[in-house]
Every structure is written in C-alpha cells, then in structure tokens.
Amino acid sequence: MLNAVPASPPVHTGLPTARAVDHYAFTVPRLDEAVAYAVDVLGGRLCYREGPVEDPSGDWMTRKLGVHPRARAQVALVRLGPCTNLELFEYTAPDQLLAPPGPNDVGGHHLALTVADPDAAEDHLRRAGTVRLGPAGPPGTAHRWFLTPWGMLLSVRGPLRPDGRRFVPAPDPHPTAVQSALGLLGVEHVGYTVADLDAGVAFFTDVLGAEVVESGAAPDTGPDGHRPPGAEQSRRVLLRTGPTANCELVQSGTGALRSRPPRNSDIGGHHLAFYVDDVDAAAAYLREQRGVVLMGEPETITQGPIAGDRWLYFSTPIGIQMEILSMPDGSLPYERQTTARRATPGSLRWHDRP
C-alpha cells in the first residue's frame, strides 16, 4: 500500500473512477526466465502465477484477449518497487510472431528505471548478463540502455528532482536485498512507439485524462539522449498517467520495419492496465469513444489467485491495447500463500500528486 496524500475529490474528466495505472504487461518467450530476472536481478517480488488461460474448444481467447482461439497463456505478476506491477505472459499460439518489435517499429516499447547510482546499477546488471547497448559513455551519463536476456529494452538513469509534474520514484521503504544492490528507486516510465504521435497524445489526454509533462520536438542526439543507440531520434512526449506513473509515447521512425503493433500473444506483445473503482462505468464511457473497441463485457474472475478481479480489455485507435480492472486487494486468494502484495493506489485518485 502506498503512503497516500490526502485524497482529492473525484475528478470527472478522463476515464471515470480511474485511480492509477495498475500494471504494465509484456509477453515474453519464457516465463520462468523473465520472472527469475524480474526477481533476482531487478529486485521484484513474485505475487502469484496463474494458468493455463485457455479455451480449448470455444472463441473466448479471441473475444476477450484478441488472440487466436487456440492460444494458451501462463501469467505471473511481479511487484517492482513501491508503485509498479509487472504482468508477464508466456503464450503459445498457432500464429505467434516470435521476434519482438524494434524501438523504431510500431509496438516498440521499453521500461525506464530510476536508480540511486547508475554506475553501480550498470555493474549489477552486467554481472547478471544484461547487455549494455552502445558505448559506455562518460561517468554520469543520464540515460543508459540495456537489453534483457530475452530482448526487452531497459533504460536506466539516476535520481530525478521532483518538479510537481512528472511522477518521480522515491525509495522503497522496505526494499529487497536485490533492490538495494541495484539501487532501484522505481519505474519512472513505460515507453511505447506509436504510428501517430499526435493522435496518441490526444487519446491519452482527451480520453484517459493524462497530462503532458514533457515534449521533445527536437530530440537529444548525444550520449544523454532519450532513445537507445541506433534508434532514430524521433519526436516523443512524456505524459503523467495518474498519481504513480508516467508514459512516454514515441513517433515511429521512417526506417520502421513494422507498421502494425504486436498482438498479446506475440513475443513483445503488451498492454497497459488501469485501476478503476467502477469497471462497468468506465466501460460505458469507453464504449462511446471513437475508435475504442471493447472486448466483450466486464467479467469477474471466480477462481484462482485473483478471484474477485473484475476486468475488461479494450483496443484503442492508437494501437495500444489496454485494460480496466478493479480488485478486492486485501481479500485475494493469493494473499494467503505469500507475504508479497500487489502495488495498489490505496486512497490515491487519478489527479493526486504524491
């Protein structure tokens, strides 16, 4: 549970009853490998695993998740730092794409970490087999780029000074030993490459209620640049998405090899999930938004580690799949099996700024 500032009155702009980003989800080739890395290298806490998620004879997987009807998934939820949940998927599917999109491609993505000491963090990551991209650069270089063993991009930088606009991770009051070794302060943002940056920003601000924090019309090109080595220096916009998260949208490059985003079942597939108080009210609002397609109706999970979770996926006109959900945290079945807990918004609301 986060240490919350006094809750503000509900704000009726953007996604109704939204509290915060609930999780970032990524599809990986090997779930065991990704969970081990998130826990043993990044210092996360495994909350639960579930699966297989499948429908051997019907079309539920297509209707609800947008994947092949015979797709099959295993899922794990890892809490990373004080505010972030990572949901990791391993899919098998007849039409699965095995190569993830690159940073210039539509559907490219990265996770940006803030650490206390970038030099010490780099040493820690390299000892764990994480590949540093590009030249080492001078000490104190703000942005350093790495590749996980399965090919996901990580950005690492030192502490940020709070400016009252962007979310700035603060130290976890109860860090794991690995978090301390990495010096992890938290996840500063998730990044997505989109086909139309202006349309992406408009959707996040007008439909979801996000706020523009930073706009890069002339991107950095030096060692302190915001893009990984070898990637085109495209326009980017950083948005505040609720009280405990930022999202960076990047314009796809002229050299992009893919113009369509990956599906959930493809390696490198991903979605962005929002915690709301009322899934049905949020769904009714989204149903009226141009270009949004709801994947069926809200459902409540009745068994497994997160029984009681009410959720719904939806596709967006900007190519990023999203989810709304509401969980009865504090009474979920997985909590009887572990001391690890999901990060939750507590009493925070979307426009609070802790």
From TrEMBL:
Pfam families the UniProt entry points to: Glyoxalase
Domain of life: Bacteria
Domain VOC per the UniProt entry, residue ranges: 20-159, 186-327
Keywords: Metal-binding
InterPro entries on file: Glyas_Bleomycin-R_OHBP_Dase, Glyas_Fos-R_dOase_dom, MMCE/EMCE_epimerase, VOC_core
Name of the protein in question: VOC domain-containing protein
Organism: Streptomyces erythrogriseus
